[in-house]
TrEMBL record:
<dbReference type="InterPro" id="IPR013785">
    <property type="entry name" value="Aldolase_TIM"/>
</dbReference>
<dbReference type="InterPro" id="IPR028581">
    <property type="entry name" value="DeoC_typeI"/>
</dbReference>
<keyword id="KW-0456">Lyase</keyword>
<dbReference type="GO" id="GO:0016052">
    <property type="term" value="P:carbohydrate catabolic process"/>
</dbReference>
<dbReference type="GO" id="GO:0009264">
    <property type="term" value="P:deoxyribonucleotide catabolic process"/>
</dbReference>
<dbReference type="Pfam" id="PF01791">
    <property type="entry name" value="DeoC"/>
</dbReference>
<comment type="function">
    <text>Catalyzes a reversible aldol reaction between acetaldehyde and D-glyceraldehyde 3-phosphate to generate 2-deoxy-D-ribose 5-phosphate.</text>
</comment>
<feature type="active site" description="Proton donor/acceptor">
    <location>
        <position position="99"/>
    </location>
</feature>
<dbReference type="InterPro" id="IPR002915">
    <property type="entry name" value="DeoC/FbaB/LacD_aldolase"/>
</dbReference>
<dbReference type="GO" id="GO:0006018">
    <property type="term" value="P:2-deoxyribose 1-phosphate catabolic process"/>
</dbReference>
<keyword id="KW-0963">Cytoplasm</keyword>
<protein>
    <recommendedName>
        <fullName>Deoxyribose-phosphate aldolase</fullName>
        <ecNumber>4.1.2.4</ecNumber>
    </recommendedName>
</protein>
<dbReference type="GO" id="GO:0004139">
    <property type="term" value="F:deoxyribose-phosphate aldolase activity"/>
</dbReference>
<feature type="active site" description="Proton donor/acceptor">
    <location>
        <position position="192"/>
    </location>
</feature>
<feature type="active site" description="Schiff-base intermediate with acetaldehyde">
    <location>
        <position position="162"/>
    </location>
</feature>
<dbReference type="GO" id="GO:0005737">
    <property type="term" value="C:cytoplasm"/>
</dbReference>
<keyword id="KW-0704">Schiff base</keyword>
Length: 237
C-alpha cells in the first residue's frame, strides 16, 4: 500500500490487514494450526501462513482469511522442478498465496539468470489472481545482491519480494533492506517484511520503510500497541 498516512495512525483493524499470521515450526501439529486459524479469525489478520504438509486447511466459511504456504523452505536449495511441483500441489489444495525461497547461493554468485528461471518455474504453476511472494533472505545478501534478486523476481512475475524465512542465522528483516527492496521494485511488486517483526514498533518501522505485508508469528503482541479508533486508512492488501 502506498499512502501518505503515517503507519503510527493505523488502527488495530488496519494493521491486522498487513499480517500473514505465521506458523512454520517443524514441530507444529494439526491442532496447532487449528489454533492458529482460530486466533487469525479473532484478530482479523489477512492470512495464515503454514507449511505445505498442513494443507488443506479448514477455514470458517464466513472468515475473511486467506491461506499462504511456503515453498522450497527454508533453504531454497531444492531443484526448480521440485519447487514448481510443490507450488502446484499447494494450489490444488486451496492455497491463495505461495511464499517461495530463491536459491540464495545463485544470488550470492551473481547468477540472477538462474534466480529468475527458478522463480519463473514456480510462477508458471500459480495462475493469477493467486499471489507469488519471493523470499530473498536479505540478511544473507549484500545490497547489490538484494537489488539483483529483486529485479529477477520482478522479471519473473512475482507479486511480492519478501525479506526472510526467519530461519537463517544471518537474521531477518531490517528497515534498511525493506527500504532498498521497495526502492528497487518501485511499485512493480510489493514488499513483505518477515523475520524478527515482534512488536508494534517493529511493524510500524517496516511499514514506514515500504512494507505492505508483514510475516508475524506473534500477531497479538504486534497489534497490542495500535489504537482501536476507526480510521479512514484503506486496507493494506
Amino acid at each position: 500500500m502506498t499512502t501518505s498516512t503515517p503507519a503510527s495512525a493505523l488502527t488495530v483493524a488496519d494493521l491486522a490487514r498487513y499480517i500473514d499470521h505465521t506458523l512454520l515450526k517443524p514441530e507444529a501439529t494439526q491442532a496447532d494450526v487449528a489454533a492458529l486459524i482460530a486466533e487469525a479469525v479473532e484478530l482479523g489478520v489477512y492470512s495464515v501462513c503454514v507449511s505445505p504438509s498442513m494443507l488443506p486447511l479448514t477455514i470458517p466459511v464466513d472468515a475473511d482469511l486467506k491461506v499462504a504456504v511456503v515453498c522450497g523452505f527454508p533453504s531454497g536449495k531444492h531443484a526448480s522442478s521440485i519447487k514448481a511441483a510443490e507450488a502446484a500441489l499447494a494450489v490444488s489444495q486451496g492455497t491463495d498465496e505461495v511464499d517461495m525461497v530463491i536459491d540464495i547461493g545463485a544470488a550470492k554468485a551473481g547468477r540472477f539468470d538462474l534466480v529468475e528461471a527458478d522463480i519463473s518455474a514456480v510462477r508458471a504453476e500459480i495462475p493469477a489472481p493467486l499471489i507469488l511472494k519471493v523470499i530473498i533472505e536479505s540478511a544473507a545478501l549484500t545490497d547489490d545482491e538484494i537489488v539483483g534478486a529483486c529485479r529477477a523476481a520482478v522479471a519473473a512475475g512475482a507479486d511480492f519480494v519478501k525479506t526472510s524465512t526467519g530461519f537463517h542465522p544471518a537474521g531477518g528483516a531490517t528497515v534498511h533492506a525493506v527500504r532498498l527492496m521497495a526502492a528497487t521494485v518501485a511499485g512493480a511488486a510489493r514488499v513483505k517484511a518477515s523475520g524478527g517483526v515482534r512488536s508494534h514498533a517493529d511493524a510500524l518501522a517496516m511499514i514506514d520503510a515500504g512494507a505492505s505485508r508483514l510475516g508475524v508469528s506473534g500477531s497479538r503482541a504486534v497489534l497490542s500497541g495500535a489504537p482501536v479508533e476507526p480510521s479512514a486508512n484503506p486496507a493494506a492488501y
